Known about the structure:
heterodimer; A: 327 residues; mainly alpha; ABC transporter involved in vitamin B12 uptake, BtuC; 2 strands; 1% strand; globular; B: 334 residues; alpha/beta; Rossmann fold; 6-stranded parallel β-sheet; 4-stranded parallel β-sheet; 11 helices; 14 strands
Amino acid sequence: MIRRAIASREMILLGAIVLLLGVIYTRFPGFVAPNNLIRVFNDTSPLILLAIGQMIVILTRCIDLSVAANLALTGMVVAMLNAAMPDLPIIAIVILAMGLGALLGMVNGVLVWKLQIPPIVVTLGTMTIFRGLIFVLSEGRWVNSHQMSAAFKAFPRSTVLGLPMLSWFAILAVILFTVIMSRTTLGRAVYAVGGNPHAATYTGLDVGRTQFWAFTISGALAGLTGYLWVSRYAVAYVDIAGGFELDVVAACVIGGISIAGGVGTVAGALLGALFLGVIKNALPVVNVSPFWQMAISGAAIIIAVAFNARANRTRGRIILKRAEHAT
Amino acid sequence: MKRRNFTKFATGLGLAASLMGSAAFAQDDTVRIALVVKALGIGFFEAAAEGAQEAAAELGNVEIIYTGPTDTTAEGQIEVINSLIAQRVDAIAVSANDTDALVPALRRAMDRGITVISWDSGVAPEGRQLHLNPSSNPLIGNMIIKLAADQLPDGGQVALLSATTTSTNQNIWIEEMMKVMDQYPDIEVVSTVYGDDLADKSYREATGLMQTYPDLSAIIAPTSVGIVAAARAVEDAGKVGQVNVTGLGLPSEMAGAIESGASQSFAIWNPIDLGYSAAYLSYMLATDQAEAGPGAEIPMGRMGTLTLDDNSEGAMADPFVYDASNIEEFKDIF
């Protein structure tokens, strides 16, 4: 029953995206051309990667506001590394970016797990620390296109089977985490910890440790995205992806991931990110005044959340049928 | 007046005492000019400091103190200014993070006989003796459309990619550009979009422009984040040679775009010249060789003469054009 309800919520979101594309089609037909849809998906890939990480964190009743800063710091580190050592193979850079990102995520995780500081406070703090560290490392300087090696910049845009690598990373992450969340102990533990921490403790799950791993995964994905982002835009500076953490949280909320924890799927995060991505890419071409664009993005988020709130209201499980009828 | 003389005497004694034994008596007639920037570590200001050093070398008995806060806040600059007042520098040349917030601190400096000028980003008239603009808004407005038009002898469609809808500088430059559009009858400005100075949004807006206007010939971005992102978008859309990205940007950031051909040329003031002029002007005022005021003409070495308007503001020069011929030389500077 519950599973069907969740599935149907994702169907509603998918319907909303299709409807949105239909509306855009009436104003700018070129937008729904297959090539352009691939471009939109590619443009949304960083958001998808971060939304999946954020989803796992939110499922455990935490929140990670440091993802964008983590992305920027990792991006800056690999960009500086590439500028200093242009011969370092790309695979090493990708692994390094994920490793560093995971390490930064672990810092969040340890603070939440061992010191029991509320996650919103921890990640607000680390967000500022990470941005500060970029400043310290780079001394405020940009790493520019001409300082990066050709291979470093070419990797995310090299096409395999018609899709850029950037898109493949998002697709792989979706598949990998769908399996992890539904088929592994860690995935099930994440749901259990978020759904009912007390019950999870009684079943022998360490709530803090599960949260720690959630932050680590979110960090690793943010680190990976950091490299992809920096090489895609061919520039690294202190403020890259400024305010992007809000987009990531918004994508999760739109995707039906409950801020109260325990409810949400990878498919939801994917669709939530795509919904935002379509809006962001469509607004420049549908000829809407820039003064209205922000209001429209905001309204879309609130409408989506209102939908979810309605869906959540019927979530209570009826244990005693007779008592239910009595009231 | 008497009282101030006494304080000066007292600090003079104090200074002499503190310098005793360090054999630095000769420094007494050294003019100490503090170059206060928006934040340390920004390439543009580092280059300006280089220019100031050049002026110092030319003038001889000048010491440049290059300083500023670590982030672009007015509070940070006020602290820096207060400490400079305590150090009794001869002149403060500031690029302000806030037009009004610095005024009280700078007035205090002027009350103590310190020469105060603002450059690059100005301070309200009551807080400084003169303001040095790197260029003037009409010169910039004219330059950005000229850069685009020079590559389009047969005319064509151009679009503007600005920062945010509320960015004062960009809005004024675009307004000034529109005023001279009748000189370019074959150029049509089809749209103005806003990238909010975010790389990803600017990239999307530039991509949107190329989709909406398939015949677009140039994107003018008078903002450093926007111009880089637009160049990237043009490269990714495979429209190099068809769409020329131009506007205002820094040579180090635009070197890649010039190399790929996405941008033929762009402009920015030369920060070296700017720092040089700021230091030169500070020296002229601090040594009483010139006086600031509406209509005054103050020499600034190799940059010619600065003419002040009614607000005691002056423009240094036309923005400097960078293209394939000089990018190699400047990309490592700023």
